[in-house]
From TrEMBL:
Enzyme Commission designation: 2.7.1.148
The GHMP kinase C-terminal domain, residue ranges: 276-331
Name the UniProt record assigns to this protein: 4-diphosphocytidyl-2-C-methyl-D-erythritol kinase
Pfam family, one: GHMP_kinases_C
Catalytic reaction annotation: 4-CDP-2-C-methyl-D-erythritol + ATP = 4-CDP-2-C-methyl-D-erythritol 2-phosphate + ADP + H(+)
Keywords, alphabetical: ATP-binding, Isoprene biosynthesis, Kinase, Nucleotide-binding, Transferase
Pathway(s) where this gene product acts: Isoprenoid biosynthesis; isopentenyl diphosphate biosynthesis via DXP pathway; isopentenyl diphosphate from 1-deoxy-D-xylulose 5-phosphate: step 3/6
Top EC class, one word: transferase
Family: Belongs to the GHMP kinase family. IspE subfamily.
HAMAP family from the UniProt entry: IspE
Length: 353
């Protein structure tokens, strides 16, 4: 039972956070050198993991679809003095990291978590910083520069929804624009692939089939707008651990199923398959309860684990049905959101100025 005093304390904290949020975006992100961007989540309609390669990564054939659920990012770039960058490098503040080919790139990241999970990631560990550092090196940008980033997180971490990967791709899109490089430049795509298997997809967005380790675009499919409900227990699944568990009992997707998926021209015709799901369920048994709870309501054929978990998605008739299911799943103590499949990709929101 939450008493009134606690409720008031929470309201106070929320008011402070709201005031800080308003201040931050108003002072830093209006004006020249600033961009607002959309950073969508994804689901894998098909995830067919294959053999493990000598580098430890697995062959993967996947059909990914972007969701309307997205993080919002603001990116601001401006010249900096060498002193400012050098000072930041010695200060070791969690929200700041220094990189670039000559330790010349100062990146500050303000992470505002709206998922209720209290995600905290030091700037140096943030995939957004890794993306900026890697692109600055690939383009050999040596002038001192400050890049300020604000990430408003709506995508829960460790959900298999690709949130961090999407943020990294979105950062590449922002910097390509601010640094005057085409977003489809080979160096941008190569950096995306070097950051993680899921990053390249978000440069494409919509619905796409990828091969290699899941990082190589093979073709695009006509996207769908179907309503979706996402349900995630509090615990996450570590992607690397799920792959390790998969190797204990690798079960390939049946060739006929893979063939049918690869022949589908529309997202709507892709059968829902994920052969990483048993490994994730072995790591987190609550996933079985979530799957059964959703299957009882919408039919097992419409329910699938998102990538390596721990979110599960279900395709439903319309947004009202998704909202009702999200409400009911919330009452089970799970994080849940209604959303829909979408044609989104990591992209700049056009300015109204
Ligand atoms: C499960 C998926 O999300 C499905 O889209 C992806 O396969 C994983 O994509 P991701 O999170 O971007 O993965 P990465 O950050 O590149 O890799 C995390 C870890 O997953 C394992 N990994 C990932 C992709 C792959 N094809 N084989 C792997 O074995 C590796 O152990 C790696 O260390
Ligand atoms: N920008 C970021 N947003 C969220 N998490 C980040 C970010 N940068 C680094 N991370 C770290 O990465 C971890 C995994 O986050 P992410 O949401 O990408 O994983 P995921 O849901 O497993 O996605 P995927 O489907 O790509 O495997 C987080 O727990 C966090 O520590």
């Amino acid at each position: 039972m939450i008493d009134n005093a606690q409720r008031n304390r929470e309201a106070e904290v929320n008011l402070l956070a709201a005031a800080r949020d308003a201040q931050w975006s108003a002072t830093t992100f209006l004006g020249p050198g600033s961009l607002k961007l959309v950073s969508p989540a994804k689901v894998n309609l098909l995830l067919a993991i294959g053999a493990v390669r000598p580098d430890g990564y697995h062959e993967a054939r996947t059909i990914m679809h972007a969701l309307a659920l997205h993080d919002t990012m603001y990116v601001h770039a401006a010249p900096a003095s060498a002193d400012e960058v050098a000072r930041a490098a010695t200060e070791s503040r969690a929200e700041v990291a220094v990189g670039g080919p000559a330790e010349n790139l100062l990146v500050s990241i303000d992470l505002s978590d709206r998922t209720g999970q209290g995600l905290a990631v030091a700037a140096a560990d943030n995939l957004v910083f890794k993306a900026a550092d890697a692109l600055a090196r690939a383009l050999d940008r040596r002038d001192c520069e400050r890049v300020s980033v604000r990430i408003e997180k709506h995508i829960p971490a460790q959900g298999g929804l690709g949130g961090g990967s999407s943020n990294a791709a979105t950062m590449l899109v922002a910097l390509a624009q601010l640094w005057d490089v085409p977003a489809d430049d080979d160096r941008v795509v190569a950096v995306a692939r070097s950051l993680g298997a899921d990053v390249a997809f978000f440069l494409q967005g919509g619905c796409a089939q990828l091969g290699g380790t899941g990082d190589t675009l093979e073709r695009t499919l006509a996207p769908s707008r179907q309503a979706v409900v996402l349900v995630k227990p509090a615990d996450g699944v570590c992607t690397a651990e799920a792959y390790r568990r998969f190797d204990e009992r690798p079960t390939p997707v049946q060739p006929a199923v893979l063939e049918a998926a690869c022949a589908a021209a529309d997202a709507a015709d892709v059968p829902l398959v994920n052969n990483l799901a048993p490994a994730a369920e072995a790591l987190l048994s609550e996933l079985v309860a979530v799957r059964q709870w959703l299957a009882d309501r919408v039919g097992a054929q419409n329910v699938l684990l998102c990538g390596s978990g721990s979110a599960t998605f279900a395709l439903v008739d319309d947004y009202d049905a998704a909202s009702a299911l999200a409400l009911a799943a919330g009452k089970q103590g799970w994080w849940a959101r209604p959303t829909n499949l979408s044609g989104l990709r990591a992209a700049i929101v056009p300015s109204r100025r």
